[in-house]
Every structure is written in structure tokens, then in C-alpha cells.
Design a protein that fits this description.
heterodimer, A: elongated, B: alpha+beta, globular
Chain lengths: 176, 648
């Protein structure tokens, strides 16, 4: 073997390492939801404060539907203040945040809402029907619904301020 | 308190490991023994500190110290005592603690065992071991801080993943990690050999036992993982070619290759470069496995949560692979073989072929595992590679390996004569053929099953031929047969330990073949009092029962199982509802047997208990996989015992 060839040995490892590095750019859990682009499933729930929350009543507004649970630590704890901030910043511009607590107990969920001072409508999905309709795989998951009632985006894991703003701004811009 | 003390101890341990690694290297370069001795003290200190951290973490779990974030995330007040201990390594951060602890234990054992007998290699071995430890301690301090404080302190924690609340989860990670970390030892010796230029056979002879130990624990870890999958996950199988299973399987394949190819080096002074490359590959694959499990790059049932940790692992993997391969290229000229291959029909070439096949298997598993990444990078399409691909490619490779398992140990070194072949293989080949004929006559339809069992019979016969012949030789010298056979095992424990390991693999092969070829299953909905029949068993649904357990709710189905002969029993499969989980967890009930297991999984049911869907499986020969594991243990133990062979 000619002398120089032996250095191909370490070089040969580079493509494999590059491929693994590429892996950081993709998220294997980011399975595109088949629901994106489809009309959002209708639901009517009774909020913790007794009011009725329904998706139909939000037609014409941009809706952020967030599935959460009080035991979902830390992701739901991280995103609760984000959602509240987003709700306060955007509520006057036709944006509604709706929280749906799933697989949860009423007292625990109410304590969660009190602890974080959440003011947007929050309801418990007692039968689990809503989470099944939305194909919720785990908590938290958040769906961004356009004014005409279509699911336009799904976010798995805690929503950040950045994600909230980007998604909601995009939905607000379309169709004026 | 605990968060601060623990983090402090980790930082000191990290500093000690870095210092020890540097001191040992400096000691090796300057020849100053005092530096190496100081590095030894550092290794002892690292072991002490990491042990303390492990105990501290365990204590935090036992006392529900939710001020530690990791404790709050992985336990809650309802978690039983037993699972509060397994929860210590039940998630990412804690698993690294366990890993680092084992690594520091191996380092200590090297100090104790090799400080006087590993010559120039020893300080460099210490350098590498401590450097690898330092990396894991760095992980524990920066991207995965196990003792991170949680504030405000929650009243209760999240709870351990219910699937991990099983006895298998005590032993599976421990065995697997002992295997993974143990493979650092041969790697450290190989690096020391390359650095010092003493690339002869000394490092191979010194690390043989370490490699067997690591290989054995890896095998055990894989088998316990299979057992866990079988009796917990409820899909009725034990191996799914999941990326992370593959990640543990690949170093097992290359370590197996190594255990065989070192014999050629010892005997014929060949394959030096190959063996070094195999050690490097094996260790890199263990790192690749940890990278895969912890980086979130590939989706898997085993995946831990993601974070920046993957980038740390990838950088370290790159550092290890590139350094090792550059060293290898640098010593290239010193690695030329002294012996050469005399004939294609010889033990050397059988072993060579064994290595080629094992590496081919490793490569296909690797390819299948990373293919989803390749596909996304090249075509932008998400795909997943399933069991059919892996089975189709690997089954022929493994069958060929089993054939070689019969040939390798008996065929002559250098060049096998026709007489040698006839003497060793005439009977085994006949027995294999007879087995194939009998199976075909019995109406076994699956050609694969016939081939696998015939090959198994062939290999078992070669082992019998060897044992009988060797025993006879001693009997002729006047020993009684039992003593002669026993003495054989002890005096030639390396050879016969290897044979017993082979027997274990054969028994496992039988189990795998049987479960694939002859298992049957059905899924059906039964009204209360109704029954279903499968494979000679009658299963009747007798009702449902709900109960409240310490940390979950449980719905249990009662099924009576009879086979009209000697069996009449009740099986109680259940569904467990954990408040923190989206979907219920299946609790499988089964009755294990030597020939077949009855295996019941509860599906949907009516709330009033009037009907239930049940999955019934009759899994054939699966128990032999676990029995094979026990045989493997005996063989591995025998082969690492000190050799008692008296010089001839």
C-alpha cells in the first residue's frame, strides 16, 4: 500500500460523523400531523369558571388550542406563563387562547390555573373526546387555528414566546 | 443541601479526572513514577466521589427530596420503595451517573490489577480511562446536571415512567452498562499500544479477559432487555430491531468478532491492524449507542429526553474516532502481519470468514438504523426501517455464522487435510442431514426452521465429537470418564468455556427459531363466560375487576386457561392507568413452559365487565432463549477462570 493511502482511514469516518451532525437539524418526533390544513374538530366544553367554551364561537378569530395537564412537569409549567403573556398581548387583535386540560383532576387543574394566574378560557376534557379528535399524543401539544377554522399548525412540547409570536403573526397577516 | 453537595462533589471529581489523566500521560512521557502514582490516587478519588454521588442521589430518591429536579421528575409520593431505587438510573441524568460510576470502578480495578504487570502501557491506559471518565463527568456537570435544584419545591413529583417499573429494569441497565463501560478497557489498552508503539501481542493477551467480561455483560443486558420487552411491553416479542436495541447489538457483534480474531493474532501473529481497528470500532459503537439514546436524533421507544447533550456526545465521538484512526494510520507500518494465510481450508480462514460475516451484520444493522437519517438528508423523505429488512438481511448471515461455529473450533490451523476434515466432520454432517430429513418428514414446512435446526444439530455434534474424543484420550490413560470430562473443562477452560458459550448460543437459536416458526396468536372479543380455543388451549373470560394501587388504577381480567390434559390455571392480565400517562399500560399475564408459553394481553373492555377483548398467544420455545442465557453465563465464567493447564 502506498504511504499516503493510510490517511484515508481517518478521513473515511468524516461522512458518517457529518451525517450524525445533520441529525440535529431534524426532529424525528416532528411527524407532520395529518390534521394540518383540515378543519379543526368542533368542541363545546364547560370551563372551570362555569362558562361555555366552544370552537364555533371563535370563528373569525385566530385560536390557539393548548392541551395540557397539571402533572405535566416541566413542559406545561414552562409554557403556562408564555401562553398567558401571548393571550394578554394579542387578545385585542382577535386572538383567543383556549386551554384544554386532559387526563387531569379538577382540583389539581384549578390549582395550576390559580398558581399561574391564567386568565384565558380553560376547560377540562372530561371524556377525552377532544384530545382524541385532535390526535393528541402527549402533553403539551398546541394547535394553531386560522380565522376560517382550519388547523394551520401543530406544536409538540412547550410553546416559547418566539413560537407563539411567529405562528400567530402569520395567521393574523393572512386575509387581513 | 443535597443539590449543592452533589454538584460540588461532581466538580471535584471532574477536576481530579482531568488532572489524573494529564498526570498519567506526563508520567509516561517523563518516566517519573511519582506522577503515575499521583494519577492512581486521583483515580481512587474519582471512584470515591462518584460513589458518594450515587449514594446521595439514591438517598434523595428514598427521602422524596423534590428540591432535586431529577428526583421530582422521576418519582412521586406513590412510587414504591423498590422503584425509587431503579428510578435513580431511570432517566437520562441518573443513567450517566451510573455509567460514570462503573467507569470509575473499572479504572480502579485496572489500577489494582495491572499497576505492576502492564509495563509501559499502564500509565497510558490510566490516561485514557480517566479521560473517558472526565468526559462523562463533564456531561453530568454541564448538559445533564443531575443535582440541579428545583425551585419552588413541588409538593409531589411527576413519577417514574410506568414501563420502567419492573424488576427487569434493575438488572437490564446495570448489565448493559457494565458491558458498555467494560469495553472501554480494551480500547484504553489498544490506545496505549498505539501510543507507545508496543503494538505486539502483549495488549491482546492482557485484555482478553476484560473483553470477555464486557462481552458477557453486554450479552446479559441484551437478553434481559429481551425478557423485559417480552413480559412487559405486551406485544409478545422480545426483539424489535428498534434503533436503540441495534445500538447495543452492534458493539456486541464487533466484540464477538474481536474475541475470535484475537485468537488468530495470538496463534499466528496476524491481523494486528484488524484487531486494533475492531477495538476502536467496538468502543466507538458504544459511544454511538449512547449518542443515539440521548441525542433524540433517531426516534425510538428508548429515547431519553433531548437537549444539548447530543452535541457533546457527537463531539466526543468525533474526537475518539479521529484520534484513534490517526494513531492507527501513524503506526501503520509497524502493524504488518508476521504470519500469512496458508490455505483457504484452515481455522484461520474460518475465523476470518466469521469476522467478515459479523462485520457485514454490523454494517447492515448500522445502515438500517441510520437510513432514516440518510433518507431525510438526501431525499427529504421521512422513512422508517422495520424488522423485515433486518431479518431478511441478517438471517442468512447468522445461519452462516452458526455453520462456522461448528467448523472453526475443530478444523486444523494452517491447512486442513482431507483426513482432518473427515475425522472431525463426517459424523456431525451426517447428524445435521438426518435432523433435516427427520424435520421434513415430520412435515415442518418452514425451510428456514429446518435449516436452522439442522445447523444447530451439526454444531452440537461437532462439540460432542470433540468432548468425546478428548475424554476418551484421558480414559485411555486410566482416568474414569466423569473425572476426565470434568478435568477437561477445568484444564482447558478457555476452549471448553468457549464451547459452552457456543452451546448457549445454539439453545438461544432454537428458541428464536421456534418462536418465529411455530407461535400462533389470535385476538378476539369474549362475553363473560364465553371461551376461545387456540393451539389446544381453551381460554374462558370470567369477568373484570377494578382496584386502586399505590400509584395507579388497575383493571384486571380473569381468564381460566385449560388444555384438556394437565393444565388448569387462571391468568390475570390487566390494564394499568397511571394519572401521568396518556394511555393505559398493559400488564401481561403468562404461563411459561419449556415447549410453549401461554401469553394473554387484555385489550378493550366494557365498563360493566360484560365483555373484553383479549390477545392470546401461544409462543413456542421462547423459554429456551432465557435458558440459553444461563448456559452462556456458565461458559463465560469458565473461560475467564485462570488457566490450569500444566505445561506439557
Amino acid at each position: 500500500m502506498r504511504r499516503g493511502w493510510k490517511w484515508l482511514l481517518p478521513l473515511s469516518a468524516l461522512p458518517v460523523l457529518a451525517l450524525l451532525a445533520y441529525g440535529f437539524r431534524v426532529n424525528p418526533r416532528d411527524i407532520p400531523s395529518p390534521l394540518v390544513g383540515r378543519p379543526a374538530a368542533a368542541f363545546t366544553l364547560t370551563a372551570f369558571d362555569g362558562a361555555t367554551v366552544s370552537l364555533e364561537s371563535l370563528r373569525g378569530k385566530v385560536a390557539v388550542v393548548n392541551f395540557w395537564a397539571s402533572w405535566c412537569y416541566p413542559a406545561c409549567y414552562d409554557e403556562a406563563p408564555v401562553l398567558e403573556r401571548g393571550w394578554r398581548a394579542y387578545r385585542d387583535r382577535g386572538v383567543v387562547v383556549v386551554g384544554v386540560a386532559i387526563q387531569d383532576q379538577t382540583e389539581a387543574a384549578q390549582k395550576f390555573i390559580r398558581d399561574f394566574g391564567l386568565t384565558f378560557p380553560n376547560a377540562r376534557d372530561v371524556t377525552g373526546k377532544v384530545s382524541v379528535d385532535y390526535g393528541v399524543y402527549g402533553v403539551p401539544e398546541t394547535f394553531f387555528v386560522s380565522r376560517d377554522g382550519r388547523i394551520r399548525g401543530k406544536h409538540v412540547g412547550a410553546v416559547t414566546d418566539d413560537v407563539f409570536r411567529t405562528r400567530v403573526d402569520a395567521l393574523l397577516q393572512e386575509g387581513g | 443541601m443535597i443539590p449543592e453537595v452533589g454538584s460540588g462533589a461532581l466538580i471535584v471529581a471532574l477536576a481530579l479526572a482531568v488532572y489524573g489523566s494529564a498526570a498519567a500521560a506526563a508520567g509516561a512521557r517523563t518516566g517519573r513514577g511519582a506522577l503515575v502514582e499521583s494519577a492512581q490516587h486521583a483515580a481512587l478519588g474519582v471512584f470515591g466521589l462518584v460513589s458518594a454521588c450515587l449514594l446521595l442521589l439514591t438517598y434523595a430518591f428514598l427521602t422524596f427530596d423534590f428540591s432535586v429536579r431529577y428526583v421530582a421528575t422521576n418519582t412521586n409520593l406513590g412510587t414504591p420503595f423498590y422503584y425509587r431505587i431503579t428510578a435513580v438510573w431511570g432517566a437520562l441524568e441518573g443513567s450517566i451517573v451510573l455509567w460514570a460510576w462503573m467507569l470509575s470502578l473499572y479504572t480502579l480495578l485496572i489500577v489494582l490489577r495491572h499497576r505492576h504487570n502492564a509495563r509501559e502501557l499502564y500509565p497510558w491506559v490510566l490516561t485514557v480511562m480517566l479521560a473517558v471518565s472526565a468526559f462523562f463527568l463533564l456531561i453530568m456537570t454541564v448538559p445533564a446536571p443531575v443535582f440541579e435544584r428545583l425551585s419552588p419545591i413541588p409538593a409531589d413529583g411527576r413519577g417514574l415512567n410506568p414501563l420502567l417499573q419492573d424488576s427487569g429494569m434493575i438488572t437490564h441497565p446495570i448489565a448493559l452498562y457494565l458491558g458498555f463501560t467494560g469495553l472501554t478497557v480494551p480500547f484504553a489498552f489498544a490506545m496505549a499500544a498505539l501510543i507507545t508503539g508496543r503494538v505486539g501481542d502483549f495488549w491482546i493477551a492482557t485484555t482478553r479477559r476484560w473483553t470477555i467480561i464486557a462481552w458477557y455483560f453486554l450479552s446479559l443486558g441484551l437478553l434481559i432487555g429481551g425478557w423485559w420487552s417480552y413480559h412487559v411491553l405486551g406485544w409478545g416479542g422480545y426483539w424489535a430491531w428498534d434503533p436503540v436495541e441495534n445500538a447495543a447489538f452492534m458493539p456486541w457483534l464487533t466484540a464477538t468478532a474481536l474475541l475470535h480474531s484475537v485468537m488468530i493474532q495470538e496463534r499466528r501473529r496476524m491481523m494486528r491492524l484488524w484487531n486494533l481497528a475492531l477495538v476502536i470500532l467496538t468502543f466507538s459503537l458504544t459511544l454511538f449507542g449512547t449518542f443515539l439514546t440521548r441525542s433524540g436524533v433517531i426516534a425510538s421507544v428508548h429515547a431519553f429526553t433531548q437537549g444539548t447533550i447530543g452535541i457533546f456526545f457527537l463531539c466526543f465521538l468525533a474526537l475518539v474516532v479521529l484520534t484513534a484512526l490517526i494513531l492507527l494510520a501513524w503506526r501503520w507500518d509497524a502493524l504488518a502481519a508476521e504470519g500469512e494465510l496458508d490455505s483457504v481450508i484452515s481455522r484461520e480462514s474460518a475465523f476470518l470468514l466469521n469476522n467478515v460475516l459479523l462485520i457485514a451484520a454490523t454494517f447492515t444493522v448500522f445502515f438500517g438504523t441510520v437510513f432514516p437519517l440518510v433518507s431525510e438528508a438526501v431525499r427529504g423523505v421521512k422513512v422508517s426501517v422495520g424488522a423485515p429488512f433486518f431479518n431478511q438481511v441478517n438471517v442468512p448471515l447468522f445461519l452462516s455464522l452458526i455453520f462456522l461455529m461448528g467448523v472453526g473450533p475443530l478444523i486444523a490451523w494452517r491447512r486442513a487435510s482431507l483426513d482432518n476434515l473427515k475425522r472431525n466432520f463426517l459424523w456431525p454432517v451426517l447428524i445435521g442431514l438426518v435432523a433435516a430429513a427427520v424435520l421434513s418428514l415430520l412435515g415442518v414446512g418452514s425451510a428456514l426452521a429446518v435449516a436452522a435446526i439442522a445447523l444447530t444439530a451439526f454444531v452440537a455434534a461437532t462439540i460432542a465429537v470433540d468432548v468425546v474424543r478428548a475424554t476418551r484420550a484421558r480414559v485411555r490413560l486410566g482416568e474414569n470418564p466423569v473425572r476426565a470430562a470434568g478435568g477437561l473443562l477445568l484444564r482447558h477452560n478457555r476452549r471448553y468455556g468457549g464451547f459452552i458459550v457456543h452451546l448457549g448460543i445454539l439453545v438461544i437459536t432454537l428458541g428464536i427459531t421456534g418462536s418465529h416458526a411455530w407461535s400462533v396468536q389470535t385476538e378476539t372479543t369474549l362475553q363473560r363466560g364465553e371461551h376461545t380455543d387456540l393451539g389446544g388451549y381453551r381460554v374462558r373470560f370470567d369477568g373484570l375487576n377494578a382496584s386502586e394501587e399505590s400509584n395507579h388504577m388497575k383493571v384486571t381480567g380473569t381468564f381460566s386457561v385449560t388444555n384438556g390434559r394437565n393444565l388448569s390455571t387462571v391468568l390475570l392480565p390487566a390494564k394499568k392507568y397511571y394519572p401521568q400517562e396518556q394511555s393505559p399500560i398493559a400488564y401481561v399475564d403468562y404461563r411459561l413452559g419449556l415447549l410453549e408459553d401461554v401469553y394473554l394481553v387484555l385489550g378493550d373492555f366494557a365498563r360493566d365487565g360484560s365483555e373484553a377483548t383479549v390477545k392470546l398467544q401461544i409462543n413456542r420455545l421462547v423459554s429456551w432463549i432465557w435458558i440459553g442465557g444461563a448456559i452462556l453465563t456458565l461458559g463465560a465464567a469458565l473461560s475467564i477462570m485462570p488457566e490450569r493447564r500444566r505445561p506439557a
